[in-house]
Every structure is written in C-alpha cells, then in structure tokens.
Amino acid sequence: MKKKIGIFVGSLRKGSYSKKVAMALSSLFPEEYEPVFIDLNDLAMYNQDLDDEGTPPVAWTKFREDVKVLSGLVFVTPEYNRSVPAVLKNALDVGSRPYGQNVWDGKPGLVVSVSPGALSAFGANHHLRQSLVFLNVPTLQQPEAYIGNIANLINEEDTIAENTMNFFKVIIDSYIAFLEKNS
Ligand code: FNR
C-alpha cells in the first residue's frame, strides 16, 4: 500500500502561490507515496468546550481521522504578519486535542515557506517549527525550504522555473530519506 503524505497549505486563496508550490512538490514524490491534499477550509476555530462536551464538529473529527492515517506531513505556508496564517495554526490546534490525543505525534514533517517577498516567509517557517516541536513532529532540518520572490519563479501557466524545480526535487528527496529514517 502506498504511504499517504498529507499536504497542508496555509492559504485558502484560489490563486495561492503556496498551493502552486505544494502542487509542484507533490508531483515529485516517487510512486510508493500518495500525496493527499488535506482541506482546511471547513475547520471551525478550535473551541475546547466542544471537545469537553463530546460534541466536536464533524469536520474536526474527519480531519483528525484523515491525519491519523498519514505517514508524513508536508506544510507549505505563506507568512501573515511575520507568523503562521491562522488557518494553518488552527489546523495544528484542532489536531492536537483532546488532550492526550495529538494526531500529529511522531509523524515526520517538512516545512516549506513561500512569499512574493525577499524574506521568504522566514518568520512563518520558524513559528511553525516552534509549534511542531511541541506537537512532537520531527522536522527535516536541511535543506531549509524558504521560497522567496515566488512571483518571479512561476509563469502565467503556473510553470515553475527549472532551477527552482530542481531545488524542489532536492527538498523532496531529502524529506523522503528523513521520513524513512524516522518512520
Ligand atoms: C501578507 N503577506 C505577507 N508576506 C510576507 O512575506 N510577510 C508577511 O508578514 C506578510 N503578511 C501578510 C499578512 C496578511 C494578512 C496577508 C493577506 C498577506 C503577503 C503574502 O505573502 C501574499 O499575499 C501571498 O501571496 C500569500 O500567500 P498565497 O495566498 O499566495 O499562498
């Protein structure tokens, strides 16, 4: 059976650069892996009362079940105000609860940050890593994946520049080696 790799994109925007990068990355996995885009659109903001009262929204329960079966986690995120967009942080929070039932636990992760700006969403990349430490997600350290000036790396047909695709291949190959070592 193929190993499912969850792809989590920190942008809900139709024309999202992060989504385009995530698609490009997902096309580079060898065939033993199945990249699965996990939809964050319907996840209501986390409210602990709903878990405590035994009435979690259906979307939370489905999300938690979807994450549990994954062999690996790929996070592709833009930066909002030098941090992680709320939609992605909320997904981490929903998956981390109820207390003691953290669905992220131990799954090898990859963090890729994307920005039209020159700072490459460094702040979001590292704020995300901070949460992943607490969630016990071992994360690929090298190569670091900061994708800056993205608007210049992608054309109107969504084709990504060849040298950038070559770098993406290095990222995915390194992540797979890391995942196999840590599974
Ligand atoms: C941004 N943007 C942004 N960019 C950046 O490099 N650092 C930042 O701190 C911010 N802050 C920020 C806040 C908010 C609320 C928005 C909406 C945008 C710009 C951002 O990088 C740009 O809109 C990207 O195109 C968003 O990513 P997607 O949707 O293209 O994946």
TrEMBL record:
Listed InterPro entries: Flavoprotein-like_sf, FMN_Rdtase-like_dom, NAD(P)H-dep_reductase
Domain NADPH-dependent FMN reductase-like: 4-150
GO cellular component: cytosol
MF terms (GO), sorted A to Z: FMN binding; oxidoreductase activity
Name of the protein this chain belongs to: NADPH-dependent FMN reductase
Source organism (scientific name): Enterococcus moraviensis ATCC BAA-383
